[in-house]
Amino acid sequence: MIYTPAPEDARLPPVRINLLSDTQTQPSAAMREAMARAPVGDEQIGADPTVNALCARVADLLGKEAAVFMASGTICNIAATLAHCRAGDEILAHETSHVVSLEGCTHAALGGFQIHPLAGTAGQFSADTLRAALHRPDRHQARQSLVCVEQTTNLGGGTVWRTSALGDIAALASANGLATHMDGARLMNASVASSVSPRQIASGWDSVWIDFSKGLGAPLGAVLAGSNDFIDQVWLWKQRLGGSLRQAGICAAACLYALDHNVDRLADDHANARLLAAGLSQIGGVTAEPPETNLVYFDISDVALSNQEFVDAMRADGVLISILGGRLRACTHLDVTTAMIQEALEVIRNVVERDTAARIGRRAQV
Ligand SMILES: *Cc1c(COP(=O)(O)O)cnc(C)c1O
């Protein structure tokens, strides 16, 4: 389901264009300077002023009482689900979501939770689908304790949940006594693409986090926000998981820098993604949906190459893309320019043309 070509391979030409993921960004010189200047302290006892400033800023951005700094988005999902649920509980989430399929089965390995996978197009499910999956408290069945959504959807194509849909789902969940958790790995992309504030997107959701190591361009870091009580519970799990940190302000400074400099420019990544998808659609044998944000999923069903052969052929020409959820994915980010998109399209066109020529050659030999 997931395939990533070798980025560092001495036998291959160096990577010129990295469309593997928005996690591939290099911290800029200015970001590194902000990191070097940051006042720091012991995060574990709440004494890192830069981490505290970041948490206060993100709590306010998302309209929540409190927030906590984490090393990654994955640990935000893990600590949040551990804080919301107890062993034997059920989590309802879209069948393609990160918590279901890309976290090493944490829910079972660490929590003893059951996943109730929900269907729906583009990584989203409707309030009706959720309603149909809910049951009354019943000693024969798992206690349903949490509903999760992903903003934007990753395997769903980087689509943006509308606030009305999010509101319907949160209202239905809380009317049935379930907590609500939003995986906001790319929530800032959703906000920029839809011109809806992060606070509005997060409104009505019990816990929400944003990732700084994706499109925002920081080397690491995510911030999870919620009520004071919830964040207290999360701190207990952060400690238990070995996630409490020391002079983490060095990294929090990069996140603060990202909030100041790298949010509005996400619109450039979205424009580049649209340009890439439009170019792909003009190549015979390739189909791509117009992206809402920075993830471009595409198919080469009319090309003889398998997805993996295609990814390797691109890599051999210095362009990195990946396979995710069984589909080809190219991702734009702050180290990708419009000129690189044009060049990547040229490489794709060449790979497809070589493939077509080889097939015609084979047929001619028969
Ligand atoms: C990347 C991602 C995560 C995990 O975040 P990391 O910072 O890589 O641990 C979780 N959910 C979604 C939707 C993601 O895309």
Write a concise synopsis of the structure shown:
By secondary structure, the protein is of the alpha/beta class. The chain has helices spanning 29-37, 49-61, 73-84, 98-101, 106-111, 127-133, 163-175, 187-194, 198-202, 228-240, 249-261, 266-281, 307-316, 338-365; strands spanning 17-18, 66-70, 89-94, 114-118, 143-150, 179-184, 207-211, 222-226, 287-288, 295-299, 319-320, 322-324, 327-331. The chain has 2 domains: 2-25 and 265-365, Aspartate Aminotransferase, domain 1, CATH 3.90.1150; 38-261, Aspartate Aminotransferase, domain 2 (3-Layer(aba) Sandwich).
What does this structure look like?
With 366 residues, the chain is α/β, with parallel strands linked by helices. The protein folds into 2 domains: 2-25 and 265-365, Aspartate Aminotransferase, domain 1; 38-261, Type I PLP-dependent aspartate aminotransferase-like (Major domain) (Aspartate Aminotransferase, domain 2, 3-Layer(aba) Sandwich), CATH 3.40.640.10. Helices cover 43% and strands 16% of the residues. The chain is built from 14 helices and 13 strands. It has a 7-stranded mixed sheet, with helices on both faces. Helix 7 (163-175) links the parallel strand 5 and strand 6 (179-184). Helix 2 (49-61) packs parallel to helix 11 (249-261) and helix 12 packs parallel to helix 14 (338-365). The protein is globular, with a radius of gyration of 22 Å. The mean pLDDT is 95. Pyridoxal-5'-phosphate is lined by residues 72-74, 77, 98, 150, 154, 183, 185, 211, 213, 222. Pyridoxal-5'-phosphate binds at residues 72-74, 77, 98, 150, 154, 183, 185, 211, 213, 222.
